[in-house]
Amino acid sequence: MFDLWFAIVAVMFTAYVVLDGYDLGAGALHLIVAKTDEERRQVLAAVGPFWDANEVWLLAAGGALFVAFPRVLAVGISGFYLAIFLVIWTLILRAVAIEFRSHVADELWRRFWDTAFAVASTLLAILWGAAVGNVIRGLPLDAGGWFALTLFTSFRPVPPVGILDWYTVLTGVFALVALVGHGATYLAWRTAGAVHDRARSLARTVFVVLAVLWPLVTLATAVVNPMLLPALPGRPFAWLGLLGAIAGLVTVFVALGRDRPLAAFLGSAAWIVGMLVATAACLYPVLLRAVPDGTFSITAHNAGNTAHGLRVALGWWAVGFPIAVAYFVILFHIHKGKAVAAADGQGY
Amino acid sequence: MDPTFWHRFQFAFTITYHYLFPQLTMGLALLILVMKTLSLRSGSERWNDAARFWIRIFGINFAMGVVTGIPMEFQFGTNWAAFSRYAGSVVGNTLGMEGLFAFFLESSFLAVLVWGERRVSRRGHWLAALALFLGSWLSGYFIVATNAFLQHPVGEAMGADGTLQLASFWQFVLNPWALLQYAHTMVASVVTAGFVVAAVGAYYTLRREHGETARAFLTTGVIAGLVASVLVAFPTGDRQAKLVARWQPVSLAAMEGRFESGPYAAITLIGQPNVVEHRMDNPVHVPGVLSFLAFGTFHSNVPGLEAFPTNLWPDNIELLYYAFHIMAGLGTLFILLMALAALQLWRKRLHTSRPLLWALMLAFPFPYIANTAGWLTAELGRQPWLVYGMLRTDEGASPLVHSGTVLFTTIGFAGIYLALGLLFVHLITREVAHGPRPAAAGEVSHV
């Protein structure tokens, strides 16, 4: 039951990264691929109907984490206190930028929100990447099971650690590159004309950078968390994830070359899913790794809930999850086809 | 500085600000659904135009509700980590269900409702309105059920590690406190929506604008406002108070500023609690009514604060007393105003009764005040407990987050929320000035 919930939480967070990832990426790069007001509104029409539902995966994943592993939520979120507020405020700025931009047809108003959308999306992608980096590197949990991190210490991933060091900054940048690539393939799929062309050519560049960064980040990970990679051979899910990630990346390059943007987007999604699955499988069963030696680590087995409680929660989750997936099928069906800016100035 | 105070201050500030928006959108979702249904059944464009205007207002309010709601979810972890660790296995259920069952429903169909009228059929657009209504009312239930667990914990058991675990899912989810509090809260949100819709109708009518649509707003707002104002007092408010009397007698005593116990307990209409000297200053009482309202007979004994040790007293008796009396007093005035307006509506004279239209136009802030005061009553009345009778509030705060840090982020919120509020007022004012858009010119779409 504990293992199952570890998997459920991993699935929920992965869904968040894949889905909200493309609108984060699209936000981070839209100033580059969309130049005119009409092109920007094309981008917004492509992500507007989706971003909120995508972001709900974060809340739903957080809810799953809360009920299944309350210690992780309590210790993790309070330990990253200031960083979490950066995330919250960035989420607010981003949501407001998307929703309020098109209400006023004024050039300065719209430029302001376009920039806010780009800045907030970029910052969020980096913050999420750094968060993953922190979890991989480990956290200074004490005997009581708590920690509090400063923003940075010596910028080295050794105790006393801070939220930002060279490794977590690297994972932050890596996440930004991955999500920008993801967003570019999404825009190439969902738009036509100049935005499509620019997104496609940008995606090719970004994925080359990603392919170069990947081995570097993997090497850095092996240095920072020496337990992670040696676990890989014994973890079938990690193998599966790794294969999926490689296949996804190859698909992206082939599909971008042949201008098959949907295939490229799915390849990019496969790469993200594969990477997250492999990471989760290697970390298992640890949820919050304690530095220096892992004595106080929080795992799926000591994170607060009981087998009975998890069985009960599984009951409602098993009902709710397929419904949520069904909503997304309907959502994509309603908004299928290339996104275009509304002619009468209404809409996103 | 006491960190718990600042954690409470921040939570109170952010939740009070947040609840300005859902209290309108939950009630408005129902009224929009009614308007869309009327339009679908009669094929009338008047109701569709009315709905379209309110959908735009709904969209702006909903966005504000989303962005101010996100911090609330995180604050369980950031500010109340010890509580989350203690009760997460229980309250994580309702919070998790809210995401899965309510937020996905709302967020998936919001864009269809707000921007997609042309993309879907009339029935499809009606379905989107239904989805938003169901989603927002479900969301309300899960949050109220979470709060009800704090007010009146049921369905839980103490785990081996000293944290709460779920014993009975259905007992927890169908907490009798939750059912009543939900009814009371949701009806109160319809009061807000009714008053706001009526206020805009009154404004247009006073300006002699948007004749037919303004009349539709007045009709909808006044009928919804009257029905909801009555229901919020009786039976839901009355039953809620009886629950407090039974399970939180010390809170009831504080709400009424009652220090001494005894039968024929009086209800206080006006007066200021003097906590130092344990008495009420310049009270205006009605004897026996409190006994009757709380327990059904005039001679019932209603315990006063002195019957309880002071460490069980709510820690802000004055504010609790004022909040409760503001809520109850305003609630009574709402019934009077809406009854008068409904009478004139029935006599077909409402649109020419200018003084009454002025009153309706200016009344809309007061349901917001009453709703806020109601939540203050519930939350201050629960003190000093975070989980009633089980976990004290100061035991629930994050252990390693210091008061200065919380003050810092609170100031950050104050700045951001000020900017958001200005933006919100700007956009809403534009919409109201623009007025309802006829279908041909402004049928919205994001195509």
How would you describe the overall organization of this protein?
The complex is a heterodimer of chains A (348) and B (447). Chain A has 348 residues and is an all-alpha fold. Chain A is built from 10 helices and 2 strands. Chain A has one domain. In chain A, strands 1-2 form a two-stranded antiparallel sheet. The radius of gyration of chain A is 20 Å and the shape is globular. Chain A starts with a helix and ends in a 14-residue tail after the last helix. The mean pLDDT of chain A is 91. With 447 residues, chain B is mainly alpha-helical. Chain B has a domain of 196 residues.
List the topology elements.
The complex is a heterodimer of chains A (348) and B (447).
Chain A: H1 2-33, H2 37-68, H3 70-79, H4 81-100, H5 107-137, H6 166-190, H7 193-224, H8 236-257, H9 261-283, E1 286-288, E2 298-299, H10 307-334
Antiparallel strand pairs in A: 1-2
Helix pairs in contact in A: 1-2, 1-5, 1-6, 1-9, 2-3, 2-10, 4-5, 5-6, 6-7, 6-9, 7-8, 8-9
Chain B: H1 3-18, H2 22-42, H3 45-78, H4 81-115, H5 122-151, E1 156-158, E2 164-166, H6 169-173, H7 176-206, H8 211-247, H9 249-255, E3 267-274, E4 279-286, H10 289-295, H11 317-346, H12 354-363, H13 365-382, E5 385-387, E6 391-392, H14 403-434, H15 439-442
Helix pairs in contact in B: 1-3, 1-14, 2-3, 2-5, 2-7, 3-4, 3-8, 3-14, 4-5, 5-7, 7-8, 7-12, 7-13, 8-9, 8-11, 9-13, 11-12, 11-13
